[in-house]
Specification:
CATH architecture of the largest domain: Alpha-Beta Complex
CATH superfamily of the largest domain: Medium-chain alcohol dehydrogenases, catalytic domain
Structural class: alpha/beta
Strand content: 25-35%
Helix content: 25-40%
Organism: Bradyrhizobium neotropicale
Largest sheet: 7 strands, mixed
GO molecular function: oxidoreductase activity
Number of strands: 15
Protein name: Quinone oxidoreductase
Distance between the termini: 12 Å
CATH topology of the largest domain: Quinone Oxidoreductase, Chain A, domain 1
Pfam families: ADH_N, ADH_zinc_N
Keywords: NADP
Radius of gyration: 20 Å
CATH class of the largest domain: Alpha Beta
Length: 322
Amino acid sequence: MKAYVYGPDGARISDVAQPTPKGTQVLVTVRACALNRADTGMRKGHAHGAAGGVGTVLGMEWAGEVAALGPDAKGVKVGDRIMGSGAAAFAEYTLADHGRLFRAPSNMNFEEAATLPVALATMHNAVVTVGGVQAGQAVLIQGASSGVGLMAMQIAKLKGAKLVIGSSTDAHRRSRLTDYGADLAIDSSDPGWVDQVLKATNGEGVDLIVDQVSGKVASQNLAATKVKGRIVNVGRLGGTHADFNFDLHAARRINYIGVTFRTRTIEEIREIFEEVRKDIWSAVEARKLQLPIDKVFSFDDIDKAFEHMEANKHLGKIVVTL
């Protein structure tokens, strides 16, 4: 089968053996897959958790149809339309654990369905399960113009947040944030952004920050969070190391929590997917939670899809079809 593989000379489309499902695995005929930021690093040979390196089939998000079942797989049958996340998505066939997929709603095509699994699982966990958002609270999403950021704002609104603030350092993308749930859009590279957040919250700060940036905004986040508020760290787009005001952290009694899928067990990931199904799936089926598709590429043009992502001018998801 055709797959996009990282090799000694970089990533390229190659012929590899079609995988066989074992245990609770499902074999998926991939119809569409979506790019994520982590893919750009793996395309350059960087590891993402335990995955990466020479011989790695790249990609982590897809939509397609069930082609075969492992002996212990349950909940789906051959021919079902599904979408999910996991390794080796950029291929004609991929494997997925039966608990790490969703049924693709009948009112979505495969391109639309492929945009959702990572954003839904990541941000329902960050905003609701870990972040504990409550109706009437104020929420700030750092890095809101990414696909997962756009989803985080929509989930916060769905759960009743009274004020949703989104950040983007790009003026055009920042102007679009109100289309996806933001009541206020800020530029986190502007030294005055904390004052804007405090003004919007009557000087108190927000109840919850979901931070995909970290780096230089880490201490600013502390100043923008209310006393006994929460910061959920889901990324490091601003760098892995930075100054951190420990005194301010203690003074404001902020609950600072780190989350990632890279160190979660399959049992933990299954639980996260189940929480999405139980809590917000009706909103997904009603298309209240959706992401814009910036551009669609054919699989043969996957290198062009990555060039488009690395140009960093897109809003929403970049999709590749097979």
